[in-house]
């Protein structure tokens, strides 16, 4: 298919020359002479590249470029101008013009730039929205909901704006962060991910900002924090809603100043890091309850990207399933095909664990099926009937609703083998409980045992069995 160019130029002689040269190269040209017509065209259809003059019959083509950006954020724009001032060039680059050509320009050079711009656009768009047959790029799905996500992603590729990705667990928040990093201007730098929920609260600051030797018990050596590790690249802060208050304050300071101070250190170190934060919790109630700083929220929520749950984009389920089947083959599992009926059954399931649960299910089917063809019967044999367990949606007022929801997430993620569910689940809940008690008591086992109401020896035994390190909970000096 010919690639399409929108040419906005009110000098008809120049327009004729450019049109002829680009048509020779196989491009399809739409020509208009005003901002008003330009906006109609951009609103109505897709163009690979736009070429625009600055002084147009109804105004300044650059000044109104943000409107074009809103409509077609990823479309490269090449600016042609007779006003060869620094100001025009700077304004062109402020508007993220792909290239700027002062008139008179070399026609061959212009054609080369258009070709390059069209190629770059194709790369980004297809990289983001390829389907199961595509190769290598992470995000799969063509539902309108995912298209909006892709559009948001393309808006942040050429800048360092802070992004806040929200969505239920397993919807692909980390994958979005990786895609922004890989496709954006920081791709040659490091991508460092930190899961705030997985780090004991009193270690978060040292994990993020590093510490100096002797800053607290256990700080045997100096350590570099994730901020410094991500220098020149992207820092992905997952589960930001779980961050304790002191770490929030420190994070806010780092974001405001672009500098970090290691725990126990005096020196401020400049860091050049793009922040992408994510949360599967609604931060607004946490802000209202005083558990999340409002000013930090606004700092992080510069560009919000919301990932819809899988059940709200069911049309993506089949293409995702095909993608995971192909991925499973790449990883050495036997090739399988689904009957259409099985795809339909998959599409009707609830997928509370979102894409992660779907992925696990497809892998399980690929491994467990005795036949190459997966039909409805294999599906139910392997995945069971729709799992119906208590969820907060069923009874949000129940005092244990949160625990049931956490248990469900644990079951979906771990998918524990038959016969190990009881022991596995109890351990999974017992460990954070004991860690909570140790944290409360600064690592004092006697007091922790009293708080829990269990025997001190039982606590000691469980600490060993669950591989808990009580020293980690000793209070900083
Ligand atoms: N659109 C997608 N296309 C392909 N794979 C996806 C997509 N979304 C998610 N996945 C896959 O699903 C799994 C879960 O995704 P990811 O870890 O990014 O979710 P998350 O929202 O960050 O989850 P959590 O909140 O639990 O950390 C990963 O294996 C990821 O590769």
UniProtKB/TrEMBL annotation:
One of the entry's Gene Ontology molecular-function terms is:
sequence-specific DNA binding
Q: Which part of the chain is the Sigma-54 factor interaction domain? A: 139-367
Q: Which InterPro entries match?
A: AAA+_ATPase, AAA_lid_NorR, CheY-like_superfamily, Homeodomain-like_sf, HTH_Fis, P-loop_NTPase, Sig_transdc_resp-reg_receiver, Sigma_54_int
Q: Which coarse location class describes where this protein primarily resides?
A: cytoplasm
- Name assigned to this protein: DNA-binding transcriptional regulator NtrC
So what does this one do?
Member of the two-component regulatory system NtrB/NtrC, which controls expression of the nitrogen-regulated (ntr) genes in response to nitrogen limitation. Phosphorylated NtrC binds directly to DNA and stimulates the formation of open promoter-sigma54-RNA polymerase complexes.
Q: Tell me which domain of life the UniProt entry assigns to the organism this sequence originates from.
A: Bacteria
Q: Which residues form the Response regulatory domain?
A: 4-118
Per the UniProt entry, what is one GO biological process?
Answer: regulation of nitrogen utilization
Gene responsible for this protein? ntrC
Which keywords label this protein? Answer: Activator, ATP-binding, Cytoplasm, DNA-binding, Nitrogen fixation, Nucleotide-binding, Phosphoprotein, Repressor, Transcription, Transcription regulation, Two-component regulatory system
Natural source organism: Erythrobacter longus
């Amino acid at each position: 298919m010919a690639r399409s160019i929108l040419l906005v130029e009110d000098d008809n002689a120049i327009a004729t020359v450019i049109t002829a040269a680009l048509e020779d190269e196989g491009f399809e040209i739409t020509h208009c002479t005003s901002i008003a017509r330009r906006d109609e065209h951009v609103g109505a259809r897709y163009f690979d590249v736009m070429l625009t003059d600055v002084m147009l019959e109804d105004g300044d083509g650059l000044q109104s470029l943000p409107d074009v950006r809103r409509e077609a954020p990823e479309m490269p724009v090449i600016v042609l101008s007779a006003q060869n001032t620094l100001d025009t060039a700077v304004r062109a680059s402020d508007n993220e013009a792909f290239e700027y050509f002062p008139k008179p320009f070399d026609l061959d050079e212009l054609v080369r730039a258009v070709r390059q711009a069209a190629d770059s656009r194709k790369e980004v768009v297809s990289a983001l929205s390829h389907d199961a047959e595509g190769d290598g790029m992470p995000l799969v799905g063509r539902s309108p909901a995912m298209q909006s996500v892709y559009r948001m992603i393309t808006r942040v590729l050429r800048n360092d704006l802070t992004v806040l990705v929200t969505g239920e667990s397993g919807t692909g928040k980390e994958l979005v962060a990786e895609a922004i990093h890989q496709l954006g201007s920081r791709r040659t730098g490091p991508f460092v991910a930190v899961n705030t929920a997985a780090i004991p609260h009193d270690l978060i600051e040292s994990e993020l900002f590093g510490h100096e030797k002797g800053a607290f018990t256990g700080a045997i050596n100096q350590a570099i924090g994730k901020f410094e590790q991500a220098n020149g690249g992207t820092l992905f802060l997952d589960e930001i809603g779980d961050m304790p208050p002191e770490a929030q304050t420190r994070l806010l300071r780092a974001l405001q100043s672009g500098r970090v101070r290691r725990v126990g250190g005096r020196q401020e170190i400049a860091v050049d890091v793009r922040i992408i934060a994510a949360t599967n919790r609604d931060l607004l109630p946490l802000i209202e309850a005083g558990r999340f700083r409002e000013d930090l929220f606004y700092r992080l929520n510069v560009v919000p990207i919301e990932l819809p749950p899988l059940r709200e984009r069911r049309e993506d389920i089949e293409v995702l399933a095909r993608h995971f089947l192909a991925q499973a083959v790449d990883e050495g599992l036997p090739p399988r095909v689904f009957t259409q009926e099985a795809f339909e059954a998959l599409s009707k399931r609830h997928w509370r664990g979102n894409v992660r649960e779907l992925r696990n299910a497809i892998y399980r089917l690929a491994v467990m099926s005795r036949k190459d063809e997966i039909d409805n019967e294999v599906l139910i044999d392997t995945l069971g009937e729709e799992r119906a367990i208590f969820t907060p949606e069923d009874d949000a007022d129940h005092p244990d609703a949160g625990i049931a929801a956490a248990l469900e997430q644990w079951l979906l993620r771990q998918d524990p083998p038959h016969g190990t569910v009881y022991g596995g689940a109890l351990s999974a809940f017992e460990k954070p409980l004991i860690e909570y008690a140790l944290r409360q008591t600064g690592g004092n086992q006697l007091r922790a045992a009293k708080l829990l109401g269990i025997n001190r020896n039982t606590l000691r035994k469980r600490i060993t069995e669950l591989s808990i390190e009580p020293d980690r909970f000793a209070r900083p000096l």
